[in-house]
Amino acid sequence: MPYKAYYLGPDGKLQRDLSEEEVRSAFAAKEGLLWVDVSETTEDDGAFLARTFNFHHLAIEDCVSPRLHAAKIDDFDDYLFITVHGVNHRAESDIVEMTEVGIFLGPHFVVSNHNLPLYSVEAVMRQVDDSGRPMKRGADFLAHALIDTLVDNVLPTIDRMGDVAEELEEEVIRHPQQSTLEAIMKLKRSAVRVRRVMTPQREIMNRLSRGEFPIIRQEALVFFRDVYDHVVRIGDMNQALLDRADNALATYMSSIANRQNDTMRVLTIVATIILPLTLLAGVYGMNFENMPELKTSWAYHAVLGFMGAVVFGGICWFWARRWISWGRRRVPGARLFAVEGERIIGYFHQLSKIR
To answer: Which of 2, 120, 160, 298 has its CA 20 to 30 A from that of 43?
Structure first.
């Protein structure tokens, strides 16, 4: 039953690593601030939460269950139970893995619960160990610190997904392969996972930032509003990634189709040129006695010349129809984002200063 407990007494003294009896005493005192973080929750941890804090059994069931639950806020009058989500950075997977944090928020206590070790929670613990600052401003600010670091840790994953999307956009044009398709699908599945858990979280942050719950004081609302802005930004960036994945998939399918068209075009050119030659070779390869051309001295050279003319004529015909691009003048690439100076406000003023 791994858990870590901090207690900031009314005198400002911070106690660490409290035992279960000390946690129960600090909770019963209803003064100061108690923070208990439970990780890798088991049935024993659920029993600990029930007998120590007397939390509702439905909330405890959500904590013990390893499944991801929808983001929500349950108001139990004396405390709030908040479920929020973040990225599991410890998972070794090609697809983004999400994780869940349950927070019991009361006037004088915060109990956080998660089934996996989280960097965001460890960061808040380091701040508490160094200065105690996240706990000095009250329970609502401590809950904000936990949620804020959890949400902020989603942004590096979104940025990395953006880098992957950029690499895939180049690869689908230059070298589309089966591995490219698999990477696109993994990116799309990751974006869908992030959207599924982060979209409901937007409403949760909105409710926490508009003064709906008395436990959250007025001075803390602006901080929760900042978290709401971050969630909205993550949602917009993730939607853009999902659109880029869809566009990359469409480009990949188009590139594969173009490659197949090029292959069929080459085969058509070869077949169109070879078939007449095969016909001539087949006709004069027959073993009939009465074929007058066989007795003519120049017939062999005439047939070879005719074959060469067929090959040359076929190549010229395909070149005229632009099926063959050898020797054609290529269109120069456009200079992207090169804007004429006269269209830029202040350009002539800056130019006159240089002169």
So the answer is: 120
Q: Report the alpha-carbon distance of residue 210 to residue 218 in Å, rounded.
A: 9
pLDDT tens column, 67-76: 888 899 999 9
Arithmetic mean of pLDDT over the chain: 84
Residues whose CB is less than 8 angstroms from the CB of residue 46 and which lie 6 or more positions away in sequence, other chains included: 60, 61, 63, 64
Indicate if 146 and 200 belong to the same structural domain. yes
Residue 98 sits at φ, ψ, to 5 deg, of -100, 155
C-beta separation of 36 from 111 below 8 A: yes
Distance CA(291)–CA(280), nearest Å, equals 14
Number of domains in the chain: 2
Could you tell me if 179 and 228 lie in one domain?
yes
Cα–Cα distance measured from residue 81 to residue 281, given in angstroms and rounded to the nearest whole number: 87
Query: Helix 154-174 and helix 178-209: axis angle, to 10°?
Result: 150
Tens of pLDDT along 272-285? Answer: 888 888 888 888 77
This model's pTM is above 0.85: no
- C-alpha to C-alpha distance for 168 and 177, rounded to whole angstroms: 11
> Is residue 134 domain-shared with residue 239, that is, in the same domain?
yes
Asked whether the beta carbons of 100 and 69 are under 8 A apart, the reply is yes
> Same domain, yes or no, for 146 and 7?
yes
Query: Residue 71 has which token pair?
Result: 């983001």
Dihedrals phi, psi of 113, to nearest 5 degrees: -140, 135
Provide the phi-psi class of 55: left if phi over 0, else alpha when psi is between -120 and 50, else beta.
beta
